[in-house]
Amino acid sequence: MTDLTPISPLGAAAPRVDSLGSITITEVTNRALASVAQRKGGSVSAGFKTLGFAGAPDVCEMLEANGHRAWWMGPDQWLVDAEFDTSGTWAKAVKEAMGDAASITDQTEGFCRFDLSGPLCVDLLQRLCGLDSDQMQVGAAQRTQLHHMACVVIKTEAGWSVLGAHSSAGSLHHALLEVAVGLH
Amino acid sequence: MSGYRLDGGLVDHASALGFKFDGKSFNGLKGDTLASALLANGVQLMGRSFKYHRPRGVMTSGSEEPNALVELREGARQEPNTRATTIELYDGLVAKSQNRFPSLKTDLLAINDVFSNFLSAGFYYKTFMWPKSFWEKVYEPAIRHAAGLGSLTDDADPDTYDKGFLHCDLLIIGSGPAGLMSALTAGRAGARVILAEEDSLLGGRLLAETMAIGGQAGHDWVAAAQAELASLPNVRIMPRTSVFGAYDHGIYGALERNADHLIAPDAGKPRQTMWRIYSKRAIVAAGAIERHIGFANNDRPGIMMASAVRAYANRWATATAKSVLVFTNNDDGYKTARDLMAKGVNVPAVINTRPEGQPIEGTEVHAGATIVDTKGRHGVTEAIVQTAKGYTTNVLCGSIAVSGGYSPNLGMTCHQRGRPEWREDIAAFVPAGDLPPGQLVAGAARGVYDMGNVMADGVSQTKQALNDLGIESKVMTLPEVEGEATGTSHYWYVPEAISGKKRAWVDFQNDVTVKDVKLAHQEGYVSVEHLKRYTTLGMATDQGKTANVLGLAVMAEKTGKSIPETGTTIYRPPYVPVAMGAFAGRSTLENFRPTRQTPSHTWAAEQGAVFQEVGLWMRAMWFPQKGETHWRESVDREVLATRTDVGICDVTTLGKIDVQGKDAGAFLSNLYVNGFSKLAVGKVRYGLMMREDGMLYDDGTAARFAEDHYVVTTTTANAVLVYRNMDFARQCLFPDMDVQIISTTDAWAQFAVAGPKSRQLLERIVDKDHDISNDAFPFMGCREITVCGGLTARLFRISFSGELAYEIAVPTRYGDALVRRMMVVGADLGVTPYGLEALNVMRIEKGHVTGAEIDGRMTALNMGLDRMVSRKKDCIGFHNSQRPAQLDPNGPRLVGLRSLNGEGIIAGSHLMNADGEVSAKVDQGHVTSVCYSPMLKEHIGLGYVNGGDQRMGEKLRAVNPIKKIETPVEIVSAHFFDPEGGRLRD
Amino acid sequence: MLIPHPLLGPRDAGEFTYLGDATLLDRPDWQSETAAQDFYDYVYTRDNPSGVHRELWYHEYGDRSWIVVTRNVSTHEILGAELAQDVAKTKGSAG
Q1: DSSP SS3 for B650
Q2: Which of C61, C64, C67 is the best mutation test for A, with the most CBs of A within 10 A?
């Protein structure tokens, strides 16, 4: 195991949590991510089943299975996550499941993720992106522009997950926090 | 001092809110607007007019107000041109009148009124034309001082503004009788409804009328309707929200004033929120706006719209004067007379322009009469009335309530160039069929005036909208309402024959009179569009809401055409003025754009790095050390240390794109000028990309990690563009190729490790089972390795600096730790961090190109890289790069430039021959990049010179006419340093 | 404006990057004898109609699909939208 010490996308040793009463913003750093891009003539549904999912997530859909989430990112493209471990082998595991049906890329570090919970989350999202968040159901995964940044917004049982580019974690967090403060 | 407080109304008589106007303290009540509070305190004079500095008071009770514009608040929050009629009174409010000097009552610029003959329509064009040089120096500053409205503060706005997005089936604009019935109809049907009301209270006209609605007072009926709507989860009620624009595809802009009714927003809370509302259907229930009548001196304070006088009495418990004369051309004016008398206000007479007039108990009705003039210095004190029989009589009054009929509030219906049509029976323009798609209009906004009919129209228009959406409506019962008299006439202004040559105002905010309109006609401006521009009628912040129809009527009369033949100008967004801060939202100052941070950002900041935003990235430009006072000292040191020992630079910002698939190699060959199919696994190749017009737009590398897996790098600036173009090629040009791409720019922390000791340094962190010796891992190699005890990494042996160099990439979260580790283990090797400036110096020394050279106007031939272009394969841009003009041997060629006088060359300078004229005609090229080379100890640069490859050794001048600097330069090879490239292969 | 994304439904135009004329899908054959002229026409001699136009939009802030939008550029009325990849594939099989 490496003796290098990782830092979070916000630049700290530990992930950040901001609790404002009606909204909690939690930086999530303990997920490994792999992208799945279906190859011409291939089919990824068997691979997703191997990983425990009912199949490949449909357009704008997020599926959960065995502690993994998988969601649609674009035509013939998905992201699938797992608990992070220092071995860095999640992408390889996905590649094994998918075989030649898909190209796999490790995207663990490509994104930052903030989970939102609390009753004012919809009010928060309404002030940052054009999604009809009020009508999104659990399991909906949408890519959109959120305060000028390309983001993924996922509705979950516990609330919401917002994923943005790792390098703009600071700007994304700032936007979420400032608007959340304004709601209180 | 004529206005005073009445009983009743929707104000809280038990409250007392202190406020200041022009430094004087007053008290108002909760529920007041600034206008109602001032009127109740007897203040009529609220401002001076735009051009003539005439005394002006409030004219309306809503956002259409042209006159009573004030500077609200003080200091950084001072806001000019705020309508007193829409300012909710709060304790501690401070406002000032504007456009007066030195004070409102003694305005020296009122002299303009005396010289009004020189300031008539088109005076700008006639008076200030010559001498020409006077315009900028004398006339314009003087006019800007004299004319104009409020003044801006120079301080930054301390408040924040939110932006947001809402979705609905039905957006209802306005919550008067039509809007409320619409909301009830749609809300009960289960549709997603947004009800937007610009006022703080719902109800519109229902708050200002005395008639019973369903057996209760109007405001009580409103409260019940509001309570029902609030109980429906599918209805969002938005008071204090002005819908200001109708945009494409059912999108509406709306401004919610979250904190304008407070002395200051609570900490962290926005002042306003700008909403973008996505609606499937929209109902404009914005009511109608009362018009003025043109009569001599009709602009004195106290002369107001009759509906406003009524609203001040009924809603705001404010009499505009003890004695209010009513002047009307329609039935609605009568209602004001009756309501005022019911409140105990004296109405000396009702002047009715129509030949017949019903008598009213308690006052005298003069049918067929007009007002021919008014008197009063800072407010009206008497009216001169001419009766039907031609006698004149003076009527003492402190206020005149004028009703010239109603104009449907058309703003929102015209925003997509819809042209309203004239309805003779109601003497008004109404929306025609060319509404913005998805928009319907209900109630007075489309010329339906009687209260019962208005409510019914709200229901029926909404049912139609719901039907369009496939939503079933419930059966709706209308409240019982007594009928209203809505008769009107076409009386526009008192003719000159009666009133003489005195001025009668049409557009109060821009000071346009009946005479101006006639003058415009006389001078040939007969089109309404020309009339508007020439007289500025309707061009003020109120967009002529109270003025336009009157102006058109005058024009129509002069041209002998009907009003529909004359036509009308239309409205543009925004319906009401919107502050720039609201458009900016939270994207201000350092948050203007998102920023991106490199993985070593925290570490670099600790080292005192100087950052600059490059693209969105915050990049370390140089790392100053103690004692270094000039950036060049730091940069020179960083270059020398790298070329002597080893330097480290964070290059994460370069775009990285993972390209996979069976056809990945062939795909890349189509994108780059050179081939990539035959690149060996474990090798990297430099590549150039063209646009289809044959011009280069980016360069980078592609590393092959497997038969079907490449990692492409792009320049920092073009990472997004290259990815977009790759997606275009993949989806649109070569859809049958098996290629998958994904951006991995953020996934890897990547560092350039450059210099003679770079391998030595890397050997100290690369795990022992990976051999990175020159033989095992030669120039242009790439490999997956592990570092620091098993951490996955990618190593590339590529060099931008021209030194023995590598780029090492680790998962982003370890980037910070890796750079710290390399600094520790390389300390004895002299490891030095270097920034973008040193990187730039080293690449110029090597003649390597960047965006300054790859500027989108040059081909590979221009850059001296033509040998890279493969003729054996398809490639985007190839054919157009071979057009005859591109092959001109005297076209631009990339060269090196040496300064011959020891001074720096200025980038962007144009190159001229050593002797002769300096002009564009004899331009020889231009300088793209410059630096001081600490290795060569001289100032050098890169640039394009016509036929430059044939002109080595020739002397030119680098000319900067702006800075008036000419630098003698010599054309040399662009490869200044180590031209053979021996250093990078060691 | 709202762009009716074939997979995602109406999306704000702000999420898209505009490219222009959809004839860019008809890239000439690089080996044709008239290739030089064909590529010149492909880049430089496109139409710019004031009414209905087929245009390419890229859902840059969304799913990264290129879309062919049929739009009346005078009124902004949108008459249809297809995934460019589908359009391109159809052309390929037709040609």
Answers
A1: strand
A2: C61
For residues B493 and B293, is the Cβ–Cβ distance under 8 A?
Answer: yes
Chains touching chain B through at least 3 C-beta pairs below 8 angstroms are A, C
For residue A4, tell me if it sits in a domain: no
How many residues make up chain B in this entry? 986
**Chain A: residue whose CA lies nearest to B594:** A171
Q: Is C82 on the interface with A (CB under 8 A)?
A: no
Q: Measured between alpha carbons, how far is B777 from B800 in angstroms, rounded to an integer?
A: 18
Nearest to C66 among B248, B731, B878 (CB): B731
pLDDT digits (tens, 9 = 90+) for A106-144: 999 999 999 999 999 999 999 999 999 999 999 999 999
Contacts of C27 in chain B (CB under 8 A): 733
Count the neighbouring beta carbons within 10 Å of the beta carbon of residue B215. Answer: 10
Q: Which amino acid is at B495?
A: P
Between positions 45 and 64 of C, the ones with CB within 8 A of B are: 56, 58, 60, 64
- Residue B945 contacts residue B895 (beta carbons within 8 Å): yes
* pTM reported for the whole predicted model: 0.95
Amino acid letter for position B453: N
Give the Å distances, CA to CA, from B385 to A142, B309, B381, B382: 69, 20, 13, 9
Subunits that touch chain C (at least 3 Cβ pairs < 8 angstroms)?
A: A, B
Judgement on whether residues A74 and A165 belong to the same structural domain of the protein: no
Question: At a CB cut-off of 8 Å and minimum separation 6, what does B765 contact?
Answer: B787, B788, B818, B821, B822, B825
Measured between beta carbons, which residues in chain B are less than 8 angstroms from residue C38?
879
Smallest Cα distance from C44 to chain A, Å: 32
CB B666 within 8 A of CB B737: yes
CATH code for position A83:
3.30.70.1520
Size (chain A), residues: 184
Pull the structure tokens for residue B233. 């989860």
Return the DSSP state at B725.
H
Please tell me the distance from the alpha carbon of residue B882 to that of residue B874, in angstroms, as a whole number: 13
Candidate from A59, A72, A144 with C-beta closest to C61: A144
The DSSP bridge pattern shows strands B910-913 and B925-933 to be antiparallel
Structural domain count, chain A: 2
Q: By residue range, what is the domain housing residue A164?
A: 17-29+110-182
The pLDDT of residue B108 is above 90: no
| Side chain identity, residue A162 | V
| Chain A with chain C: Cβ pairs closer than 8 A | 34
How many Å apart are CA B924 and CA B926, to the nearest integer? 7
The verdict on residue A9 lying in a domain is no
Among A40, A75, A106, the domain-final residue is A106
Q: Is A65 exposed, middle or buried (0-12, 13-18, 19+ CB in 10 A)?
A: middle
Per-residue pLDDT for B41 more than 60?
yes
* A91 contacts chain B (CB < 8 A): no
CB B972 within 8 A of CB B928: no
DSSP state for residue B33 in the 8-state scheme: B
Looking at the structure, tell me whether residues A39 and A101 fall in a common domain. Answer: yes
Residue that is last in its domain, among A75, A106, A137: A106
| Closest CA of chain C from B885, distance in Å | 13
Contact B170, B193 (CB under 8 A): yes
> How high is the ipTM of this complex?
0.98
Residue A103: which pLDDT band, with cuts at 50, 70 and 90? very high
CATH of the domain at A142: 3.30.1360.120
Task: Look at residue B1 and tell me whether its pLDDT is greater than 50.
Answer: no
Judgement on whether residues A178 and A114 belong to the same structural domain of the protein: yes
Residue A46 placed within a domain: yes
CB < 8 Å from B in window 142-181 of A: 147-149, 165-172, 174-175, 178-179, 181
Compute the distance between CA of residue B471 and CA of residue B185 in angstroms, rounded to an integer. 11
Cβ neighbours of C63 in A, within 8 Å: 72-75, 143
Does C1 reach chain B within 8 Å, measured CB to CB?
A: yes
